[in-house]
């Protein structure tokens, strides 16, 4: 198992599926637990917005040129997922893609950059557009798209 790059107390997810997938992915350096509904995932470790404790989540893998994008769709629910608020408050995260871990800086994509990444994400995951549509209908919200870029160290 590869060493963690963020220090702090880890609090496993209260959701058993998330908790079990993250544990399996990390224990096997991404050889197992690396898909969700047949699609590849990454594991993102972030600091909680209120607690300051480490949180982990498996998310769709959208990568281009060493930059990763993650969509805060929450499956099309009316509200943004809790992890989105963590990233906005504490933008330095650890990203694990297979056995490779790196520190990244999160920021919300906007404008033409956002549209370019959304088009790319929709090519990889055609269902992503319907999640965004559902979020707009149920919560009258635009799904944030977050870019994870390598930190300057």
Structural class: alpha+beta
CATH topology: Pnp Oxidase, Chain A
Characterize the largest beta sheet: strand count, sense, and whether it forms a barrel. 8 strands, antiparallel
Relevant CATH superfamily? Electron Transport, Fmn-binding Protein, Chain A
Radius of gyration: 15 Å
Query: Fraction of residues in helices?
Result: 25-40%
Organism: Pseudonocardia xinjiangensis
Protein name: Nitroreductase family deazaflavin-dependent oxidoreductase
Catalytic activity: oxidized coenzyme F420-(gamma-L-Glu)(n) + a quinol + H(+) = reduced coenzyme F420-(gamma-L-Glu)(n) + a quinone
Family: Belongs to the F420H(2)-dependent quinone reductase family.
Write the layout of secondary structure elements.
Elements (H helix, E strand, L loop, with lengths): L15 H12 L7 E2 L2 E9 L6 E7 L2 E2 L2 E5 L10 H8 L2 E6 L2 E9 L2 H14 L3 H12 L5 E6 L3
Antiparallel strand pairs: 1-2, 2-3, 2-6, 4-5, 5-8, 6-7, 7-8
Structure notes:
By secondary structure, this protein is α+β, with helices and mostly antiparallel strands. The protein has four helices and eight strands. Strands 1, 2, 3, 4, 5, 6, 7 and 8 form an eight-stranded antiparallel beta sheet that branches. It has a single domain (16-150), classed as Roll (Pnp Oxidase, Chain A), CATH 2.30.110.10. The longest helix is centred in the C-terminal third of the chain and has 14 residues, at 111-124.
Write a brief structural summary.
InterPro entries: F420H2_quin_Rdtase, Split_barrel_FMN-bd. The protein is of the alpha+beta class and 153 residues long.
